[in-house]
Amino acid sequence: MTTFALIHGGGGSAFDWHLVEAEVRAQGHDTVAVDLPVSDPQAGLWDYADAVVQAVGDRRDLVVVAHSWGGFVGPLVCARARADALVLVTAMIPSPGEAPGDWWERSGRPSSDIEDEYELYLHDVPRELGERVLAHDRALAEKMSMDRAVREPWPLAAWPDVPTRYVLCRDDRFFTPDFVRRHVKERLGIAPDELPGSHMAMLSHPRELADYLVGVAGGA
Predict the structure, then answer these.
(1) What is the 3-state secondary structure (H, E, C) of the chain?
(2) Is the pTM of this model over 0.90?
(3) What is the mean pLDDT of each run of 10 residues along the chain (220 residues)?
């Protein structure tokens, strides 16, 4: 049995993963979705990673899955815990010494012309589900204060020695496919795996994403 540690993105929460968790558990595996300490302005990147490590505890056969902003956290978890694989889901890829707040310009990520939050992140998610998740995450975001974490340089000198996969979401309007393909090649030297879905594919295509993750675990 594999344990999947599921890390949400900026402005998100563990609840974002609830459909994927149900699909993965139905296939006989375990999941740990963690709420990062985004309400603590003194929490740094290692604090975020340690929150995940503590939630995982002594579970074995670990696959770390990081979404969006969580890309700055997932590799740090792998540096703290023994992971069999790291999966980045339409995620930011940090470079050594790069602060999350600097990533946007340094990565060359193009700005989006879409102002509507739903259309940008959740355009293929059923409306009732999307609104429920947005309401949940907005309530948490009211207390969000990531001041230290977004300014802190990414602390690893190199990428952790763990097999790494990247999921490109073909319908993503926030991290568009053309940008992602270039970003992944430049920063990881690999080609991303491609799945359907928007930036919140864990809500629009949970079964496909769960099947992919279970497949990664089988080959790890």
Answers:
(1) CCEEEEECCCCCCHHHHHHHHHHHHHCCCEEEEECCCCCCCCCCHHHHHHHHHHHHCCCCCEEEEEEHHHHHCHHHHHHHCCEEEEEEECCCCCCCCCCHHHHHHHHCCCCCCCCCHHHHHCCCCCHHHHHHHHHHHHHHHCCCCCHHHHHCCCCCCCCCCCCEEEEEECCCCCCCHHHHHHHHHHHHCCCCEEECCCCCHHHHCHHHHHHHHHHHHHHC
(2) yes
(3) 96 96 97 95 96 94 97 97 97 98 96 92 96 89 88 97 98 97 98 98 98 88
